[in-house]
Amino acid sequence: MDPKNVKSDLVLILDYGSQYTHLITRRIRSLSVFSLCISGTSSLATITDLNPSVVILSGGPHSVHTPDSPSFPDGFLSWARSHGVVVLGICYGLQLLVQRLGGDVRVGHKQEYGRMEICVDKPSALFPSGKVGKRQVVWMSHGDEAVTLPDGFHVIARSDQGAVAAIENPSAKFYGLQYHPEVTHTAEGMETLRHFLFDVCGVEAGWNMEDVMEEEIKVINDTVGPDEHVICALSGGVDSTVAATLVHKAIGGRLHCVFVDNGLLRYKERERVMETFEKDLHLPVVCVDAVDQFLTKLKGVTDPETKRKIIGKEFICIFDAFAQELEAKLGKKPAYLVQGTLYPDVIESCPPPGTGRTHSHTIKSHHNVGGLPKDMKLKLIEPLKLLFKDEVRQLGKILNVPEAFLKRHPFPGPGLAVRVLGDVTEGNALDILRQVDEIFIQSIKDAGLYDSIWQAFAVFLPVRSVGVQGDQRTHSHVVALRAVTSQDGMTADWYYFEHKFLDDVARKICNGVRGVNRVVQDITSKPPSTIEWE
Protein backbone atom coordinates (compact mmCIF):
# COMPACT_ATOMS: atom_id res chain seq x y z
CA MET A 1 0.00 0.00 0.00
CA ASP A 2 1.41 3.37 -1.03
CA PRO A 3 0.62 6.00 1.65
CA LYS A 4 0.41 8.66 -1.06
CA ASN A 5 -2.56 6.84 -2.64
CA VAL A 6 -4.64 6.67 0.53
CA LYS A 7 -7.90 8.59 0.27
CA SER A 8 -7.35 10.48 3.50
CA ASP A 9 -5.19 13.26 4.82
CA LEU A 10 -2.02 11.77 6.26
CA VAL A 11 -1.09 12.39 9.89
CA LEU A 12 2.60 11.57 10.11
CA ILE A 13 4.14 10.68 13.46
CA LEU A 14 7.86 11.21 13.98
CA ASP A 15 8.88 8.58 16.51
CA TYR A 16 11.34 9.49 19.27
CA GLY A 17 11.06 6.23 21.17
CA SER A 18 8.02 6.62 23.42
CA GLN A 19 6.31 3.40 24.44
CA TYR A 20 3.04 5.16 23.57
CA THR A 21 3.93 6.22 19.99
CA HIS A 22 1.99 3.36 18.42
CA LEU A 23 -1.07 4.39 20.43
CA ILE A 24 -1.08 7.77 18.68
CA THR A 25 -1.22 5.92 15.36
CA ARG A 26 -4.07 3.69 16.56
CA ARG A 27 -6.12 6.51 18.08
CA ILE A 28 -5.93 8.57 14.90
CA ARG A 29 -6.84 5.64 12.67
CA SER A 30 -9.83 4.94 14.92
CA LEU A 31 -11.09 8.36 13.79
CA SER A 32 -10.94 7.19 10.14
CA VAL A 33 -7.81 9.22 9.46
CA PHE A 34 -4.72 7.55 8.02
CA SER A 35 -1.71 7.75 10.30
CA LEU A 36 1.82 6.51 9.76
CA CYS A 37 4.82 6.31 12.08
CA ILE A 38 8.40 6.81 10.88
CA SER A 39 11.71 7.54 12.55
CA GLY A 40 12.00 10.91 14.22
CA THR A 41 15.40 11.35 12.56
CA SER A 42 14.14 10.70 9.02
CA SER A 43 15.44 13.00 6.32
CA LEU A 44 13.48 16.05 5.24
CA ALA A 45 13.04 14.44 1.81
CA THR A 46 11.43 11.37 3.41
CA ILE A 47 8.98 13.55 5.31
CA THR A 48 8.07 15.86 2.45
CA ASP A 49 7.71 12.98 -0.02
CA LEU A 50 4.88 11.58 2.13
CA ASN A 51 3.08 14.94 1.89
CA PRO A 52 1.49 14.93 5.36
CA SER A 53 -1.20 17.38 6.41
CA VAL A 54 -0.21 17.07 10.06
CA VAL A 55 3.04 16.02 11.72
CA ILE A 56 3.10 14.86 15.34
CA LEU A 57 6.38 14.78 17.25
CA SER A 58 6.14 11.87 19.69
CA GLY A 59 7.35 11.56 23.23
CA GLY A 60 10.51 9.73 24.13
CA PRO A 61 12.91 8.83 26.95
CA HIS A 62 15.46 11.49 26.01
CA SER A 63 16.40 14.94 27.24
CA VAL A 64 16.90 17.73 24.73
CA HIS A 65 20.03 18.65 26.71
CA THR A 66 22.00 15.52 25.85
CA PRO A 67 24.34 15.86 22.85
CA ASP A 68 22.97 12.81 21.03
CA SER A 69 19.28 13.51 21.63
CA PRO A 70 17.26 12.75 18.48
CA SER A 71 15.65 15.55 16.52
CA PHE A 72 13.83 16.32 13.29
CA PRO A 73 15.98 17.40 10.30
CA ASP A 74 17.14 20.95 9.71
CA GLY A 75 14.63 22.87 7.61
CA PHE A 76 11.65 20.86 8.80
CA LEU A 77 9.93 23.67 10.70
CA SER A 78 10.51 26.15 7.86
CA TRP A 79 9.04 23.65 5.41
CA ALA A 80 6.03 23.01 7.66
CA ARG A 81 5.34 26.73 8.11
CA SER A 82 5.66 27.52 4.40
CA HIS A 83 3.40 24.63 3.38
CA GLY A 84 0.74 25.11 6.04
CA VAL A 85 1.51 21.78 7.71
CA VAL A 86 0.29 21.63 11.30
CA VAL A 87 2.84 20.43 13.88
CA LEU A 88 1.95 19.03 17.31
CA GLY A 89 4.63 18.14 19.85
CA ILE A 90 3.75 15.64 22.58
CA CYS A 91 5.88 15.44 25.74
CA TYR A 92 9.49 15.25 24.44
CA GLY A 93 8.09 16.53 21.13
CA LEU A 94 6.88 19.73 22.85
CA GLN A 95 10.29 20.26 24.44
CA LEU A 96 12.04 19.64 21.13
CA LEU A 97 9.77 22.14 19.40
CA VAL A 98 10.44 24.77 22.09
CA GLN A 99 14.20 24.26 22.05
CA ARG A 100 14.61 24.26 18.26
CA LEU A 101 12.61 27.51 18.01
CA GLY A 102 14.81 29.30 20.55
CA GLY A 103 12.90 28.71 23.79
CA ASP A 104 14.32 27.37 27.04
CA VAL A 105 13.85 23.85 28.41
CA ARG A 106 15.24 22.97 31.83
CA VAL A 107 15.23 20.10 34.28
CA GLY A 108 11.99 20.42 36.23
CA HIS A 109 12.03 21.24 39.94
CA LYS A 110 9.36 18.60 40.40
CA GLN A 111 9.22 15.81 37.88
CA GLU A 112 5.73 14.73 36.86
CA TYR A 113 4.87 11.07 36.29
CA GLY A 114 1.49 9.36 36.17
CA ARG A 115 -1.97 10.87 36.61
CA MET A 116 -1.90 14.63 37.16
CA GLU A 117 -4.45 17.41 37.00
CA ILE A 118 -4.12 20.38 34.66
CA CYS A 119 -6.15 23.55 34.35
CA VAL A 120 -6.89 25.39 31.11
CA ASP A 121 -5.79 29.03 31.49
CA LYS A 122 -7.36 30.78 28.52
CA PRO A 123 -9.50 30.18 25.43
CA SER A 124 -7.39 28.88 22.57
CA ALA A 125 -7.41 26.85 19.39
CA LEU A 126 -6.63 23.64 21.27
CA PHE A 127 -9.08 24.30 24.10
CA PRO A 128 -12.36 26.07 23.17
CA SER A 129 -13.77 28.70 25.53
CA GLY A 130 -15.94 26.13 27.30
CA LYS A 131 -12.81 24.45 28.63
CA VAL A 132 -11.39 27.56 30.31
CA GLY A 133 -11.03 27.17 34.07
CA LYS A 134 -11.87 23.50 33.92
CA ARG A 135 -9.61 20.78 35.22
CA GLN A 136 -8.58 17.63 33.36
CA VAL A 137 -6.92 14.45 34.55
CA VAL A 138 -4.02 13.68 32.21
CA TRP A 139 -1.07 11.29 32.03
CA MET A 140 2.31 12.95 32.50
CA SER A 141 5.75 11.42 32.01
CA HIS A 142 8.49 14.04 31.98
CA GLY A 143 11.50 15.32 33.92
CA ASP A 144 12.30 18.40 31.83
CA GLU A 145 9.91 21.29 31.31
CA ALA A 146 9.57 24.34 29.07
CA VAL A 147 10.28 27.53 31.06
CA THR A 148 10.64 30.18 28.33
CA LEU A 149 8.57 29.89 25.18
CA PRO A 150 9.66 30.94 21.67
CA ASP A 151 8.22 34.12 20.17
CA GLY A 152 4.57 33.81 19.20
CA PHE A 153 3.77 31.00 21.66
CA HIS A 154 1.38 31.18 24.61
CA VAL A 155 0.83 28.91 27.61
CA ILE A 156 -2.77 27.72 27.52
CA ALA A 157 -2.73 25.12 30.33
CA ARG A 158 -0.64 24.35 33.41
CA SER A 159 -0.35 21.49 35.85
CA ASP A 160 -1.19 21.83 39.54
CA GLN A 161 2.54 22.24 40.16
CA GLY A 162 2.69 25.16 37.76
CA ALA A 163 4.49 23.36 34.92
CA VAL A 164 3.57 24.17 31.32
CA ALA A 165 1.03 21.59 30.15
CA ALA A 166 -0.02 22.98 26.75
CA ILE A 167 1.23 25.68 24.38
CA GLU A 168 0.32 27.00 20.96
CA ASN A 169 1.23 29.42 18.19
CA PRO A 170 -1.86 29.37 15.96
CA SER A 171 -0.41 31.73 13.33
CA ALA A 172 2.47 29.30 12.73
CA LYS A 173 0.20 26.26 13.24
CA PHE A 174 2.55 24.91 15.95
CA TYR A 175 1.08 23.28 19.07
CA GLY A 176 2.35 21.33 22.05
CA LEU A 177 1.01 19.08 24.81
CA GLN A 178 3.28 18.12 27.69
CA TYR A 179 0.98 15.21 28.56
CA HIS A 180 -0.05 12.12 26.57
CA PRO A 181 -3.56 12.50 25.06
CA GLU A 182 -3.28 9.09 23.39
CA VAL A 183 -3.41 6.98 26.58
CA THR A 184 -6.66 6.01 28.24
CA HIS A 185 -5.47 7.50 31.54
CA THR A 186 -6.00 10.95 29.98
CA ALA A 187 -9.76 11.13 30.40
CA GLU A 188 -10.45 13.69 27.65
CA GLY A 189 -7.55 12.64 25.42
CA MET A 190 -9.61 11.31 22.52
CA GLU A 191 -11.84 14.38 22.59
CA THR A 192 -8.72 16.57 22.44
CA LEU A 193 -7.28 14.61 19.49
CA ARG A 194 -10.62 14.68 17.67
CA HIS A 195 -10.95 18.45 18.15
CA PHE A 196 -7.32 19.01 17.13
CA LEU A 197 -7.56 16.98 13.91
CA PHE A 198 -10.98 18.02 12.64
CA ASP A 199 -11.51 21.51 14.06
CA VAL A 200 -7.97 22.89 14.37
CA CYS A 201 -6.28 21.13 11.44
CA GLY A 202 -9.30 20.68 9.18
CA VAL A 203 -8.36 17.09 8.43
CA GLU A 204 -10.82 15.06 6.37
CA ALA A 205 -11.58 11.49 7.39
CA GLY A 206 -11.34 8.93 4.62
CA TRP A 207 -9.43 5.95 5.99
CA ASN A 208 -11.47 2.75 5.57
CA MET A 209 -10.82 -0.89 4.78
CA GLU A 210 -12.77 -0.86 1.51
CA ASP A 211 -10.28 1.61 0.06
CA VAL A 212 -7.40 -0.34 1.57
CA MET A 213 -8.61 -3.48 -0.18
CA GLU A 214 -8.91 -1.73 -3.55
CA GLU A 215 -5.49 -0.12 -3.19
CA GLU A 216 -3.81 -3.38 -2.17
CA ILE A 217 -5.34 -5.27 -5.08
CA LYS A 218 -4.02 -2.58 -7.42
CA VAL A 219 -0.55 -2.75 -5.84
CA ILE A 220 -0.50 -6.56 -6.13
CA ASN A 221 -1.52 -6.46 -9.77
CA ASP A 222 1.05 -3.76 -10.53
CA THR A 223 3.75 -5.78 -8.78
CA VAL A 224 3.00 -9.26 -10.09
CA GLY A 225 3.26 -9.62 -13.84
CA PRO A 226 0.33 -11.14 -15.77
CA ASP A 227 2.17 -14.45 -16.22
CA GLU A 228 3.92 -14.60 -12.84
CA HIS A 229 3.01 -16.94 -10.00
CA VAL A 230 3.03 -16.35 -6.26
CA ILE A 231 3.53 -18.57 -3.20
CA CYS A 232 1.71 -17.80 0.04
CA ALA A 233 2.90 -19.09 3.38
CA LEU A 234 -0.22 -20.03 5.33
CA SER A 235 0.18 -20.48 9.07
CA GLY A 236 -3.46 -21.11 9.90
CA GLY A 237 -3.73 -17.74 11.61
CA VAL A 238 -5.88 -14.75 10.75
CA ASP A 239 -3.08 -12.65 9.23
CA SER A 240 -1.75 -15.07 6.63
CA THR A 241 -5.27 -16.22 5.77
CA VAL A 242 -6.52 -12.68 5.10
CA ALA A 243 -3.35 -11.95 3.11
CA ALA A 244 -3.88 -15.09 1.01
CA THR A 245 -7.55 -14.31 0.42
CA LEU A 246 -6.65 -10.77 -0.68
CA VAL A 247 -3.94 -11.94 -3.09
CA HIS A 248 -6.22 -14.68 -4.42
CA LYS A 249 -8.84 -12.04 -5.15
CA ALA A 250 -6.21 -10.09 -7.09
CA ILE A 251 -4.53 -12.83 -9.16
CA GLY A 252 -6.76 -15.88 -8.81
CA GLY A 253 -5.26 -19.26 -9.72
CA ARG A 254 -1.72 -17.91 -9.96
CA LEU A 255 -1.57 -18.03 -6.17
CA HIS A 256 -0.20 -21.26 -4.68
CA CYS A 257 -0.60 -21.65 -0.91
CA VAL A 258 1.54 -23.87 1.26
CA PHE A 259 0.85 -24.88 4.85
CA VAL A 260 3.86 -26.24 6.70
CA ASP A 261 3.52 -28.69 9.55
CA ASN A 262 6.74 -27.90 11.40
CA GLY A 263 6.01 -29.98 14.47
CA LEU A 264 5.32 -26.82 16.46
CA LEU A 265 1.58 -26.60 15.89
CA ARG A 266 -1.22 -26.72 18.45
CA TYR A 267 -3.35 -29.76 19.21
CA LYS A 268 -4.82 -31.15 15.94
CA GLU A 269 -4.05 -27.83 14.25
CA ARG A 270 -3.05 -29.41 10.95
CA GLU A 271 -6.33 -31.28 10.51
CA ARG A 272 -8.51 -28.38 11.65
CA VAL A 273 -6.80 -25.72 9.56
CA MET A 274 -6.67 -27.75 6.34
CA GLU A 275 -10.38 -28.49 6.64
CA THR A 276 -11.13 -24.75 7.02
CA PHE A 277 -8.96 -23.83 4.03
CA GLU A 278 -10.63 -26.38 1.77
CA LYS A 279 -14.27 -26.23 2.88
CA ASP A 280 -14.75 -22.60 3.92
CA LEU A 281 -12.12 -20.50 2.14
CA HIS A 282 -11.68 -22.56 -1.04
CA LEU A 283 -7.99 -21.70 -1.17
CA PRO A 284 -5.56 -23.91 -3.14
CA VAL A 285 -3.37 -25.29 -0.35
CA VAL A 286 -0.60 -27.90 -0.28
CA CYS A 287 0.39 -29.28 3.13
CA VAL A 288 4.09 -30.00 3.63
CA ASP A 289 5.14 -32.35 6.45
CA ALA A 290 8.42 -30.91 7.74
CA VAL A 291 8.28 -32.05 11.35
CA ASP A 292 11.59 -33.91 11.31
CA GLN A 293 13.34 -31.12 9.41
CA PHE A 294 12.44 -28.44 11.96
CA LEU A 295 12.86 -30.45 15.15
CA THR A 296 16.27 -31.75 14.03
CA LYS A 297 17.49 -28.18 13.53
CA LEU A 298 16.05 -27.08 16.89
CA LYS A 299 17.53 -29.93 18.93
CA GLY A 300 19.56 -28.54 21.83
CA VAL A 301 18.66 -24.89 21.08
CA THR A 302 17.44 -22.91 24.10
CA ASP A 303 17.96 -19.25 23.13
CA PRO A 304 14.64 -17.78 21.90
CA GLU A 305 16.17 -15.49 19.27
CA THR A 306 18.19 -18.37 17.85
CA LYS A 307 15.02 -20.47 17.67
CA ARG A 308 13.28 -17.74 15.70
CA LYS A 309 16.17 -17.37 13.25
CA ILE A 310 16.38 -21.15 12.68
CA ILE A 311 12.64 -21.43 12.11
CA GLY A 312 12.65 -18.48 9.70
CA LYS A 313 15.50 -20.00 7.71
CA GLU A 314 13.85 -23.42 7.51
CA PHE A 315 10.57 -21.91 6.33
CA ILE A 316 12.37 -20.18 3.49
CA CYS A 317 14.18 -23.40 2.54
CA ILE A 318 10.81 -25.12 2.28
CA PHE A 319 9.30 -22.30 0.26
CA ASP A 320 12.27 -22.37 -2.14
CA ALA A 321 11.86 -26.15 -2.55
CA PHE A 322 8.11 -25.71 -3.08
CA ALA A 323 8.88 -23.07 -5.73
CA GLN A 324 11.17 -25.50 -7.54
CA GLU A 325 8.43 -28.15 -7.57
CA LEU A 326 6.00 -25.61 -8.98
CA GLU A 327 8.53 -24.63 -11.62
CA ALA A 328 8.73 -28.22 -12.80
CA LYS A 329 4.94 -28.38 -12.92
CA LEU A 330 4.20 -24.95 -14.42
CA GLY A 331 7.30 -24.38 -16.49
CA LYS A 332 7.80 -21.09 -14.64
CA LYS A 333 9.23 -20.54 -11.18
CA PRO A 334 7.19 -18.37 -8.78
CA ALA A 335 8.95 -15.11 -8.04
CA TYR A 336 7.06 -13.88 -4.97
CA LEU A 337 6.25 -14.98 -1.43
CA VAL A 338 3.19 -13.59 0.38
CA GLN A 339 3.35 -13.18 4.16
CA GLY A 340 0.88 -11.83 6.68
CA THR A 341 3.26 -9.38 8.33
CA LEU A 342 1.45 -6.75 10.43
CA TYR A 343 2.45 -3.28 11.57
CA PRO A 344 3.15 -4.39 15.18
CA ASP A 345 5.51 -7.07 13.77
CA VAL A 346 7.36 -4.35 11.89
CA ILE A 347 7.46 -1.99 14.86
CA GLU A 348 8.74 -4.64 17.28
CA SER A 349 11.24 -6.26 14.93
CA CYS A 350 12.82 -3.62 12.74
CA PRO A 351 12.42 -0.02 11.53
CA PRO A 352 8.90 1.04 10.55
CA PRO A 353 8.30 2.77 7.20
CA GLY A 354 11.12 5.28 6.80
CA THR A 355 14.75 4.75 7.76
CA GLY A 356 17.19 5.09 10.57
CA ARG A 357 15.07 4.27 13.60
CA THR A 358 17.63 4.12 16.38
CA HIS A 359 15.77 5.37 19.43
CA SER A 360 13.84 2.32 20.56
CA HIS A 361 14.98 -1.24 21.04
CA THR A 362 14.18 -4.35 19.01
CA ILE A 363 11.89 -6.40 21.23
CA LYS A 364 12.00 -9.65 19.27
CA SER A 365 12.52 -10.97 15.77
CA HIS A 366 9.55 -12.33 13.86
CA HIS A 367 10.30 -15.08 11.35
CA ASN A 368 8.50 -12.99 8.74
CA VAL A 369 10.46 -9.82 9.54
CA GLY A 370 13.73 -10.24 11.38
CA GLY A 371 14.34 -13.93 10.77
CA LEU A 372 14.52 -14.05 6.98
CA PRO A 373 17.87 -14.84 5.36
CA LYS A 374 19.45 -12.13 3.24
CA ASP A 375 19.98 -14.52 0.32
CA MET A 376 16.29 -15.45 0.06
CA LYS A 377 15.44 -16.13 -3.58
CA LEU A 378 11.76 -15.13 -3.39
CA LYS A 379 10.68 -11.48 -3.33
CA LEU A 380 8.24 -10.53 -0.59
CA ILE A 381 4.68 -9.30 -0.89
CA GLU A 382 3.33 -8.07 2.47
CA PRO A 383 -0.10 -6.53 1.83
CA LEU A 384 -0.94 -6.09 5.54
CA LYS A 385 2.32 -4.61 6.82
CA LEU A 386 0.80 -1.20 7.58
CA LEU A 387 -2.26 -2.61 9.36
CA PHE A 388 -3.02 -3.48 12.96
CA LYS A 389 -4.74 -6.74 13.93
CA ASP A 390 -8.22 -5.24 14.34
CA GLU A 391 -7.90 -3.61 10.89
CA VAL A 392 -6.93 -6.97 9.39
CA ARG A 393 -10.06 -8.49 10.89
CA GLN A 394 -12.13 -5.69 9.33
CA LEU A 395 -10.49 -6.39 5.97
CA GLY A 396 -11.11 -10.11 6.35
CA LYS A 397 -14.79 -9.49 6.99
CA ILE A 398 -15.03 -7.50 3.74
CA LEU A 399 -13.29 -10.42 1.98
CA ASN A 400 -15.91 -12.83 3.42
CA VAL A 401 -13.50 -14.78 5.59
CA PRO A 402 -15.71 -16.68 8.09
CA GLU A 403 -16.26 -14.71 11.28
CA ALA A 404 -15.34 -17.67 13.49
CA PHE A 405 -11.96 -17.84 11.77
CA LEU A 406 -11.38 -14.08 12.10
CA LYS A 407 -11.99 -14.31 15.83
CA ARG A 408 -9.21 -16.86 16.34
CA HIS A 409 -6.60 -15.80 18.85
CA PRO A 410 -3.19 -14.85 17.42
CA PHE A 411 -0.64 -17.65 17.13
CA PRO A 412 3.05 -16.81 16.81
CA GLY A 413 4.92 -17.59 13.59
CA PRO A 414 7.51 -19.74 15.43
CA GLY A 415 4.62 -21.69 16.96
CA LEU A 416 5.09 -23.63 20.18
CA ALA A 417 8.85 -23.09 19.97
CA VAL A 418 8.34 -19.82 21.83
CA ARG A 419 5.97 -21.41 24.33
CA VAL A 420 8.36 -24.16 25.37
CA LEU A 421 11.04 -22.41 27.38
CA GLY A 422 14.22 -24.25 26.55
CA ASP A 423 14.85 -27.14 24.16
CA VAL A 424 11.59 -28.02 22.39
CA THR A 425 12.82 -31.53 21.60
CA GLU A 426 13.61 -32.48 25.19
CA GLY A 427 11.37 -35.21 26.55
CA ASN A 428 7.72 -34.86 25.61
CA ALA A 429 7.46 -31.11 26.20
CA LEU A 430 5.55 -30.42 22.99
CA ASP A 431 2.96 -33.15 23.58
CA ILE A 432 2.40 -31.99 27.15
CA LEU A 433 2.02 -28.38 26.05
CA ARG A 434 -0.47 -29.29 23.31
CA GLN A 435 -2.70 -31.15 25.76
CA VAL A 436 -2.53 -28.41 28.40
CA ASP A 437 -3.24 -25.69 25.83
CA GLU A 438 -6.22 -27.60 24.43
CA ILE A 439 -7.76 -28.00 27.89
CA PHE A 440 -7.23 -24.30 28.68
CA ILE A 441 -8.64 -22.98 25.39
CA GLN A 442 -11.61 -25.36 25.38
CA SER A 443 -12.42 -24.36 28.96
CA ILE A 444 -12.37 -20.70 27.93
CA LYS A 445 -14.74 -21.45 25.06
CA ASP A 446 -17.06 -23.51 27.25
CA ALA A 447 -17.21 -20.60 29.71
CA GLY A 448 -18.16 -18.18 26.91
CA LEU A 449 -15.02 -16.10 27.45
CA TYR A 450 -13.12 -16.70 24.21
CA ASP A 451 -14.26 -13.56 22.37
CA SER A 452 -13.54 -11.38 25.42
CA ILE A 453 -9.88 -12.36 25.41
CA TRP A 454 -7.30 -11.12 22.90
CA GLN A 455 -5.00 -14.11 23.31
CA ALA A 456 -4.79 -17.12 25.60
CA PHE A 457 -2.30 -19.96 25.69
CA ALA A 458 -0.23 -22.27 27.88
CA VAL A 459 3.54 -22.23 28.42
CA PHE A 460 5.82 -25.16 29.25
CA LEU A 461 8.34 -24.14 31.91
CA PRO A 462 11.84 -25.68 32.15
CA VAL A 463 11.37 -26.61 35.83
CA ARG A 464 10.00 -29.52 37.81
CA SER A 465 8.20 -29.42 41.13
CA VAL A 466 7.38 -31.92 43.84
CA GLY A 467 3.77 -32.98 44.12
CA VAL A 468 1.47 -35.71 45.41
CA GLN A 469 -0.68 -37.58 42.89
CA GLY A 470 -2.40 -40.88 43.61
CA ASP A 471 -0.92 -40.93 47.13
CA GLN A 472 2.55 -40.96 45.60
CA ARG A 473 5.33 -38.37 45.44
CA THR A 474 5.82 -36.93 41.97
CA HIS A 475 8.53 -34.76 40.48
CA SER A 476 6.78 -33.39 37.41
CA HIS A 477 6.52 -30.42 35.09
CA VAL A 478 5.13 -26.93 35.73
CA VAL A 479 2.97 -25.16 33.17
CA ALA A 480 1.81 -21.54 33.06
CA LEU A 481 -1.46 -20.11 31.76
CA ARG A 482 -1.49 -16.73 30.01
CA ALA A 483 -4.55 -14.72 28.91
CA VAL A 484 -4.59 -11.04 27.97
CA THR A 485 -6.90 -8.34 26.70
CA SER A 486 -5.66 -5.88 24.10
CA GLN A 487 -6.70 -3.78 21.13
CA ASP A 488 -3.71 -4.20 18.85
CA GLY A 489 -1.19 -6.42 20.64
CA MET A 490 1.18 -3.53 21.31
CA THR A 491 0.02 -3.18 24.91
CA ALA A 492 -1.97 -5.69 26.94
CA ASP A 493 -3.52 -6.32 30.35
CA TRP A 494 -3.81 -9.76 31.93
CA TYR A 495 -7.31 -11.19 31.98
CA TYR A 496 -8.95 -11.61 35.38
CA PHE A 497 -10.50 -15.08 35.64
CA GLU A 498 -12.87 -16.07 38.40
CA HIS A 499 -11.15 -18.26 40.98
CA LYS A 500 -13.51 -21.15 40.34
CA PHE A 501 -12.62 -21.15 36.63
CA LEU A 502 -8.90 -21.31 37.41
CA ASP A 503 -9.47 -24.03 39.97
CA ASP A 504 -11.45 -26.14 37.48
CA VAL A 505 -8.84 -25.70 34.73
CA ALA A 506 -5.94 -26.55 37.03
CA ARG A 507 -7.70 -29.72 38.19
CA LYS A 508 -8.45 -30.77 34.60
CA ILE A 509 -4.82 -30.25 33.61
CA CYS A 510 -3.24 -32.03 36.57
CA ASN A 511 -5.72 -34.93 36.34
CA GLY A 512 -5.76 -35.16 32.55
CA VAL A 513 -2.17 -34.53 31.44
CA ARG A 514 0.42 -37.03 32.51
CA GLY A 515 3.64 -35.37 33.65
CA VAL A 516 2.16 -32.13 35.05
CA ASN A 517 1.63 -31.53 38.77
CA ARG A 518 1.59 -27.74 39.04
CA VAL A 519 -0.23 -24.92 37.21
CA VAL A 520 0.61 -21.21 37.59
CA GLN A 521 -0.91 -18.07 36.05
CA ASP A 522 0.97 -15.20 34.42
CA ILE A 523 -0.45 -11.90 35.72
CA THR A 524 1.90 -9.38 34.12
CA SER A 525 0.83 -6.74 31.62
CA LYS A 526 2.63 -5.56 28.48
CA PRO A 527 4.76 -3.62 29.24
CA PRO A 528 6.79 -4.62 31.24
CA SER A 529 6.50 -8.12 29.77
CA THR A 530 5.73 -9.19 26.21
CA ILE A 531 2.59 -11.21 25.53
CA GLU A 532 4.57 -14.29 24.54
CA TRP A 533 7.18 -15.60 26.97
CA GLU A 534 10.04 -15.78 24.46
From TrEMBL:
Signal peptide: none annotated. Coiled coil: none annotated. Its EC number is 6.3.5.2. One of its GO terms (cellular component) is cytosol. One of its GO terms (molecular function) is GMP synthase activity. CDD domains: GATase1_GMP_Synthase, GMP_synthase_C. ATP binds at S235, G236, G237, V238, D239, S240, T241. It catalyses: XMP + L-glutamine + ATP + H2O = GMP + L-glutamate + AMP + diphosphate + 2 H(+). Pathway: Purine metabolism; GMP biosynthesis; GMP from XMP (L-Gln route): step 1/1. Pfam families: GATase, GMP_synt_C. SUPFAM superfamilies: Adenine nucleotide alpha hydrolases-like (SSF52402), Class I glutamine amidotransferase-like (SSF52317), GMP synthetase C-terminal dimerisation domain (SSF54810). It comes from the Eukaryota. Keywords: ATP-binding, Glutamine amidotransferase, GMP biosynthesis, Ligase, Nucleotide-binding, Purine biosynthesis. Residues 207-408 form the GMPS ATP-PPase domain. It is an enzyme of class 6 (ligase). PANTHER family: GMP SYNTHASE [GLUTAMINE-HYDROLYZING], GMP SYNTHASE-RELATED. HAMAP family: GMP_synthase. NCBIfam families: guaA_Cterm, guaA_Nterm, PRK00074.1. Catalyzes the conversion of xanthine monophosphate (XMP) to GMP in the presence of glutamine and ATP through an adenyl-XMP intermediate. This is GMP synthase [glutamine-hydrolyzing]. It comes from Vigna radiata var. radiata.
